[in-house]
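Example with several molecule types.
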Amino acid sequence: MKAHHISNWFSDRLGWRALSSDVGGRLVSARNPNIYIGGVILFLFATQIASGVLLLLHYQSSAEHAFESVTRIAGEYPYGDLVRGVHFWSGQLLVGTLLFQLVLSMLRGSFTAPRELVWVSGVVITTVAAAFAFTGSVLPWTDDAYAQARVGSQMAGYVPVIGGTLLRLLRGGDEITSQTLQKVFGFHVAVLPASFTLLLVLHFYTIRSAPRVTTTPAADGEKIPMYPDFVVRMAAIIVGVLVVVVSLATFVARPIGNAADATAASPASARPTWFLLPVHALLKSAPTTLLGVDSARFIGGALTGLYLLVAALPFVDKRGGRVTTGITCGALVLAALLTIHALY
Amino acid sequence: MSKDEKATAESGRRDFLGMAIVGTAAALGVTAAVPGISFLRPDSRRVIGTASAGKVHDFQLGTGRMVLLDDRPVLIIRLPEGGFRAFLAACTHLGCIVKYSQERNRIECPCHRGVYSIEGANVSGPPPRPLETLKVEVESGEIFVRST
Amino acid sequence: MPSIRAIFLAFSATLATQLALAGPTIDAGHAAAGKSAQTVLHSAATTKKADEAPPREVSEIDTNTCATCHGSLPETKYSTPAKQFVASVHADDRIGCVGCHKGDPRDPTVRAHDREGGFTPRPNEQGIVAICGGCHSNAPFIRRFNARLRTDQGDLFPLSLHGKLATTGDPNAPTCATCHGYHDVVSVSSLLAPTNPRNVANLCARCHENPELMKKYGLPINEKAKWQRSAHARALLGGNPQSPSCTGCHGPHSATPPRATTVGRVCGQCHPDQLEAFRQSPHSKAYRRLGLSECVPCHDPHEARRSSWDINSSEFVCNRCHAKDTVQRQVAAELSQMVSTARGRLVRAKARYEALKAQGINVHGAQYSLDQLDTEQQKLSITLHSLNPSRMRVPMAAVIDAADRSEKIIAAAQQERQLRRRGYYVALALAITLLGLLVTKAVQLARQRSRSKA
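Resulting structure tokens for the full complex:
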């Protein structure tokens, strides 16, 4: 039986040939960075799912066994350290790419009408990715992870209005126990992946529905068909990203650390993940009270406000012009400075 | 070259390129699958090695006791006339845990009424093979069990 | 239904009555803070219980009576003991001042100090021993406070050299209070206690490192310094509470140095296997004939640690007695060779393991086999005491076997790593090839498109 006989058999029953010629013939703009970035994000998410499922099959989510199971994954099971490394690095790259995409959209003003929902869904997607990174770093239950869990849930408690509920939701109670780890695990492997997937679908739907924004001239220009031109280009980029992720996972040694000890003082070196370092810097350097409230609570409230501002950007800045660009650049510089401050 | 020949040559190159791409991608896919599959199949450890099953005085004459050695259930019988027997307590039929019957001095499996002799041989019922025997050594009052 | 006013009046009346009844108690508390001692003693005396015959457990108020007065006196020789006592274990258990000093606690005036009432301000050495022993050797009494406390001190202490000195009335002789403290006695488990195992060496050194004091008795003063260099000190201060300091070998209350003939027995309490092996060695009979102690010629009892088995070192332990070209020296050379081989294998296996760990490889099972190697090495050290090369062959083989097993596991991990590294490069080559092919294809497609547009 020839190859195309088999594919015809399936195509007649699944109708994919019609679908693929329809989708494959669709034209996309060659120079728009968004679709390439989007493809990378999708690929990294798929890698996360694949490596995550592998890890999930060996990880034990109780406080007594978590650290031990991670040690066994890295040391005992074949290629365990590779799987763990790929999961870590592709996750970091995923968050980084999403943040890059966000900043790019802010600078290019592509959040203005009629693309408000595209922007909002994108912000929520990035938030979910940050939540992924945070919950994922807690799972190994090392002393760093435990410290992160303590600080992170405390900060969540400082979100105005819903803070208390959020804290108790995250901790599974008032204190951090084995219950907390179970909740965090449930979020990381079930709630967040499902939300992320739904949000991605929503995001793509809003992109397709909204007509093109005319303030970005780069969106116009050369058009290429989805298949084979765009697919080939995207595949090349994906192979490049794959090489980067696997090389990082192979060559960068990541020691696991020590098991969490609820009775020991938190380690001095405890730091959150890199994208939370600006917040870490603020928390470290702020005076005890700001405007009459605890500085941590103040910062929590301020950050919530900032977040809502960013999410509602299309409604705040209707024209997406130089003001937003300027503020974005300024914010980036500030964040970079704070990050450096947090590290030294 | 004529236009037609050029077109044919080009399409030949294109096909080759397309096949090369698919082939390399498939090979890369295999190298990605190898770690994934090995990761999920840790080596099965056949050997119990040597493990302590407790003190001699914990076992009364003519009784059988179940201990967990290396995550495996092991049945240890102290014969009425002295001496020990040790078996992996998984029935060779479908894996139920067997027990020692003192009255009939034999090993029985409650699930489908398999019967083994005191030496572990499958005497009647569905079990196709004898029970896996383990060696027993007694050293300074402590019982050590080892897979043969 | 009573009116609201009535309910309010009833409630207030009840509250007022309660306050009135509680008045004197509150008042006495305030009084203790600032009023004169007389008034305090007087009011305290009215609520006091009658003093009971021994056991001398007295109510809390009595303790406060002596300590309250003495604690507020300006002279430190009165106030310090009172203040120290508050934090001691005796105060916790409500053993009052009268428990040791006797006297009449009911009397609020200085008549409480009446010697004829039995009051003893400063007992002498035998007095201290009798007072402490009166309770602490009384097992039924002590059991009420702490069933795990020993009650044999009273019997043991007089047998010791310290005890014998105390009986003769020697003012230098230590008594219970010398080591345990007078008024600030705390439990031995507390790190503040001078008798805590970690502090014992410093405690004994208070007298035993004092040159003038020790000269009177003809005793050396270098034991603590030697002990601090020993393996025992390292283990104890490193966290092993079973490792001995002075009291571990000499006993806390029966402080008598083990005799030359009995030193071995003391060491053997913790090191029985080495002692047994030694007693089967040719040294055992030889030492007895020469009047030497069992363990001492090779291991200083205070600076106790491993002897050197390095034949090339000037510290080689056999050099201490045996001349170069003797049969014994040849046996020593053979044993030294075995020891250094075994140690060499251990060091090598550990080094390889550490190197692998530094590369980030967690070698499963290697740690376990290294622990086994350590154990075999220790067994070898024990058998060494028999000084019999033929007896050493079996433990030696076990050490080599364990070392081989460890190194095999480590080597396997290293091989696995190299294999995987090679696999990575294969995958990398494939990926780069694929990348190249895709780029070529993309360029081709672009060229095609521009040609078809033209």
